[in-house]
Design a protein that fits this description.
The complex is a heterodimer of chains A (about 300) and B (about 270).
Chain A (H helix, E strand, L loop, with lengths): L7 H12 L10 H27 L4 H8 L2 H33 L3 H16 L2 H9 L7 E2 L2 E2 H4 L2 H27 L2 H9 L4 H31 L11 H12 L2 H29 L11 H17 L1
Antiparallel strand pairs in A: 1-2
Helix pairs in contact in A: 3-12, 4-5, 4-8, 4-11, 5-8, 6-8, 8-10, 9-10, 10-12, 11-12
Chain B lengths: L14 E10 L2 E11 L4 E5 L6 H8 L7 E6 L2 E2 L2 E4 L2 E4 L2 H9 L1 E4 L11 H11 L5 H14 L15 H13 L5 E5 L7 H16 L4 E4 L3 H7 L2 E6 L2 E6 L1 H4 L6 H12 L6
Parallel strand pairs in B: 3-10, 3-11, 8-9, 9-10
Antiparallel strand pairs in B: 1-2, 1-4, 4-5, 6-7, 11-12
Helix pairs in contact in B: 3-4, 3-5, 4-5, 5-6
Classes of the chains: A mainly alpha (about 300), B alpha/beta (about 270).
Bound molecules: adenosine-5'-diphosphate (ADP) and magnesium ion.
The site of magnesium ion (MG) has 5 residues of chain B, from helix 1.
Chain lengths: ~300, ~270
């Protein structure tokens, strides 16, 4: 029979633990030194690059500043926002319709919606932009109207962006709908809701939590993708700075102006997206409650348990 | 489907299944089910997993369609409407209104996660019944009180235990004073120590004379509170009668075998 006593080292530690529970832990320096060195190298590299660009380059920052707030550029920003906004709202509607078709039980609707997604997601958006702009080449008249009059750089851009984003939006919305537990629909139906009510009042509010982050990313991609339409002469942000630089030859400065604006717009969009997500996160978990409310509830739970 | 005349009969069962058949493709899930539940009766349905118990309950409130036989709830034929001398498929609105009069409690609770317990309970009254907010919430609080959860009215489902969620779900199911409540294995998803609190609430309901159809593996509970017990296997009712008979003194070998199996492992996975 082996003896049941513990090895002496372990029992020595145990007795020390019992005697004094406040133990001084000494830091291990080797991992800290490594990451510290890595950080130093990165800072050095970035610093050298920044110095090369800012001090060594012949960039006219005053020009950047001047054009950043110029009326022409602001107008371009307006057009970019308009393209983004209209395409986004339009794709939310068209995407919802397509998603509903794809999850419906009607085979014809399913196939049509799937074909739409397949086509518009499968071809480059730049190709679609150029295609719509040149629509008149093979379709000179649309319902009695002269195609060339209908298709301006603006309408062609809108059409291309809206139809393209709708395909992605359809998939985002469909993913959201499928993410909701089918038991939710059954519960909604069982209390007497119609299928439509259960979709709008029970499924959608839950799907939106899955949809919003993905749709937000889509919106941000779209905001930047609007720059593609400058190739057909639409005067949005990029088209505007391009035309300015072709007159002034401040090519890089104007690209910086555009980039700074895109960064600003995307930052604002990200902020709004985070706010929206927080708003629709209700009931998702304990974090949905304020600290004060959590404490109140803990107190209730406490007294309740005593009663029981 | 042909319909018997039901008008003017005093004791029309709340639910009446006659030769109900249902298949999913090649799989015959219900193979001629006959069953009656009268007002105030608690009918318990037991049987092995996959025998068609859930499907049967779901047919009663049109969550599934059935392909043969008839299901009557009170004076209407489930899934159908009378148009002149013809039966036509019930309109979605009609089906919805009929469902509003039947409560259902699910194995996995299916509470609405974005609503508080109180909002869950009043959801039917508010969104379907058109009851005013104040009146609905007053009744909602009464209901939560009945299931012992009035202090949790403002909690979201994610903040409640499984047993509490199921009690809220029961309150939601009975909120509209339905003529019938369907329970589909209401305690099967619960930790064993939480089963009792849900059974307590259900026991209260049977005492109050609620008409109920209960699918469960809680044989002891069935023996205690059921008015009738149906043992279903392979989509047919093998044996039915009062619990003292079906559970204490089963006539069929299949019933005996099932009861032995469930008694040994009452929390058999469905
Ligand atoms: N929507 C469905 N599609 C295909 N088969 C199904 C569907 N729902 C249930 N079934 C099958 O029908 C049978 C009966 O299921 P169910 O009624 O859930 O049984 P129980 O509730 O008695 O365990 C099972 O074999 C199940 O796999
Ligand atoms: Mg089942």
């Amino acid at each position: 029979m082996p003896t049941m006593t513990e090895p002496s080292a372990v029992s020595a530690i145990r007795s020390r633990l019992a005697a004094d529970s406040d133990i001084q832990l000494h830091k291990r320096w080797s991992p800290r030194i490594l990451t510290g060195a890595a950080a130093a190298v990165v800072v050095l590299v970035v610093g050298i690059l920044a110095y090369t660009v800012i001090a060594g380059g012949t960039l006219h920052w005053d020009v950047v500043l001047q054009y950043f707030f110029s009326g022409e550029v602001i107008k371009g920003v307006g057009v970019t926002l308009l393209l983004t906004g209209v395409s986004l709202v339009g794709s939310a509607i068209l995407g919802s319709v397509l998603a509903t078709m794809r999850v419906s039980h009607n085979v014809v609707l399913k196939v049509i919606a799937s074909a739409y997604v397949w086509f518009f997601r499968g071809t480059p958006v730049l190709v679609q932009v150029v295609f719509w702009f040149n629509l008149a080449l093979f379709l000179p008249r649309i319902a009695g109207w002269d195609t060339n009059q209908l298709i301006t750089p603006m309408t062609a851009a809108l059409l291309a962006l809206l139809l393209n984003v709708s395909a992605f939006m359809c998939e985002v919305i469909r993913g959201g709908l499928l993410s909701v537990d089918p038991g939710q629909v059954e519960a909604a139906l069982s209390i007497g809701m119609t299928p439509r009510q259960s979709l709008l009042r029970i499924v959608m509010p839950q799907a939106i939590r899955v949809i919003l982050p993905a749709a937000g990313n889509l919106a941000i991609d779209l905001l930047k993708a609007t720059s593609l339409v400058y190739v057909i002469g639409t005067r949005e942000l990029l088209g505007t700075v391009q035309s300015i630089s072709s007159q002034t030859f401040y090519v890089i400065e104007m690209l910086i102006v555009a980039s700074l604006w895109y960064l600003l717009l995307v930052s604002v969009a990200s902020f709004l997206q985070a706010r929206l997500e927080a708003h629709f996160g209700r009931g998702a978990g304990r974090q949905a409650l304020s600290r004060r409310e959590r404490l109140r509830r803990r107190a209730i739970a406490h007294t309740e348990e005593k009663v029981i | 489907m042909t319909a018997p005349a039901v008008d003017g009969v005093a004791d029309v069962p709340v639910v009446s299944l006659r030769g109900v058949r249902k298949n999913f493709g090649d799989l015959q899930v219900l193979d001629g089910i006959d069953l009656d539940v009268h007002a105030g009766e608690a009918a318990f349905v037991i049987g092995p997993s996959g025998s068609g118990k859930s499907t049967m309950l779901r047919c009663v409130n049109s969550l599934e369609t059935y392909q043969g036989g008839q299901i009557w709830v009170g004076d209407y034929l489930v899934g159908a409407e009378r148009k002149g001398d013809r039966w036509v498929e019930a309109a979605p609105k009609v089906t919805a209104a009929r469902r509003a009069d039947i409560g259902m409690v699910f194995q996995r609770f299916n509470l609405f996660p974005m609503m508080t317990a109180l909002d869950n309970v009043v959801s039917g009254m508010r969104m379907v019944g058109g009851v005013r907010k104040q009146a609905a919430e007053r009744r909602g609080m009464e209901l939560l009180d009945r299931v012992g959860l009035s202090a949790r009215a403002g909690f979201y489902p994610s903040q409640l235990s499984g047993g509490q969620q199921q009690r809220v779900a029961i309150a939601r199911a009975i909120a509209a004073n339905p003529r019938l409540v369907l329970f589909d294995e209401p305690t099967s998803a619960l930790d064993p120590e939480l089963v009792g609190e849900v059974l307590d609430v259900m026991r209260d309901l049977t005492r109050e004379g609620m008409t109920m159809m209960v699918v469960t593996h809680e044989i002891a509970f069935a023996l205690e509170v059921a008015d009738s017990v149906y043992f279903i296997d392979h989509g047919v009712v093998v044996e039915s009668g009062p619990p003292s008979q079906v559970i204490r003194d089963p006539q069929h070998a299949r019933t005996r075998e099932f009861l032995t199996r469930v008694r040994n492992d009452p929390h058999e996975e469905p």
